[in-house]
Design goal:
The chain is built from nine helices and nine strands. It is an alpha/beta fold and about 300 residues long. The strands form two sheets. It has a six-stranded mixed beta sheet with strand order 2-3-1-4-5-6, with helices on both faces. It has a three-stranded mixed beta sheet with strand order 7-8-9. Helix 6 (about 190-205) packs antiparallel against helix 8. The longest helix is centred in the C-terminal third of the chain and has 18 residues, at about 250-270. The protein is globular, with a radius of gyration of 20 Å. The two termini are about 40 Å apart. The protein binds guanosine-5'-triphosphate and magnesium ion. Magnesium ion binds near residues 21, 41 and 42.
Amino acid sequence: VSAAHRAGFAAIVGRPNVGKSTLLNRLIEAKVSIVTPKPQTTRHRILGILTRPDFQIAFVDTPGLQQRHRRALNQAMNRTAAASLEDADLVLFVVEALHFTPEDEHVLKRVKQSKRPAILVVNQVDAVRAKGRLLPFISELSKRHDFAAVLPLSALKGVNVGELPAVVAKLLPESPPLFPAEQQTDRSPRFRAAELIREKLMLRLAEELPYGLAVEIERYEAPEEGRIEIDAVIWVERPGHKAIVIGKGGEQLKAMGRAARLALNGALGARVHLGLWVKVRENWADDARAVSAFGYRES
Ligand SMILES: Nc1nc2c(ncn2[C@@H]2O[C@H](COP(=O)(O)OP(=O)(O)OP(=O)(O)O)[C@@H](O)[C@H]2O)c(=O)[nH]1
Ligand SMILES: [Mg+2]
């Protein structure tokens, strides 16, 4: 007799920058969530769907939960993460090996409050030089909560990630698949385009600029097979930021546009023509209405 089919939602939660999005992409072997070395990269709830004969897991990438969140944008991001946690069947609590901070503590509290089964994922084990410190770190953390499982892994290198789906599946309810087998994400190509553009901007811009960027797709058309035309507006918070994004003689914008176009060609499987415009909306990240208008709202 074969086991019952299982399906459900597994929320990937943790403080900013621990590698949640890297893990999601690795789990489903596709880039559905953007990744940068900077914290607060992910601003939305993003599904990555893994379909196997016996189970289907909808992994839910979430914004890093923050303790301090003065700005409207950060509040919306925190609400999105918290709502994803509450809505999930189980939680993957991701931490960075050997770096458990008060921010992690805060996330663990939320995980406990959710009353969901939780798997402790100790990521970035590839970066640990003193391997002898890993086991004590893991056993110390394991005492902090009744985790359903504990898994050290490297999302970046793909080490041990293959073990995770089966561990997750066992904890999911019996259910038929929730999505068509070929579906990888709940996000549209248009959304992914905006995100890839934001990723290339974040990678090249410094200081506070990455945190005050929003990308809005104004036009997305496929006039012929193999060709996509995209016009996007890059929103910044101050006139000074606009000047930096454009750069001397437009060089900075040109370089970022080139990087974005190459990424889009690959992601969308077409020749992409990309038009970028930079506009200012003063301190939009403090303005709940603007934050919502840019698509950053609860869940
Ligand atoms: N060495 C190493 N680096 C990793 C690993 N996983 C992720 N990273 C790096 O950590 C940085 C942050 O990765 P993200 O996946 O964007 O982290 P996140 O938790 O989604 O971050 P937010 O969306 O900002 O909350 C990137 O530079 C990744 O390449 C890992 O297993 N090992
Ligand atoms: Mg992320």
